């Protein structure tokens, strides 16, 4: 199995789009979480559950998150947020 981490961000996802409802969850870990067998640490985890009707939405979200994840300064901005609203605003600004 390959890692779902991109630098300090992980985007784990199912191989099948069989969720009853498309939804996402975000984990912010300022101190980091050991994520894979190489002991890489991630600070943000975006969990995605996707319904088969949302395939194109999933691809867009995954592509956008991947673009944000490759820039360490983006991750630093997101990790230092204190509220959900602040996180969403900073994430939206980066899109």
Automatic annotation (TrEMBL):
Residues 1-94 form the PTS EIIA type-2 domain. Pfam families: PTS_EIIA_2. This is PTS EIIA type-2 domain-containing protein. It comes from Bombilactobacillus bombi.
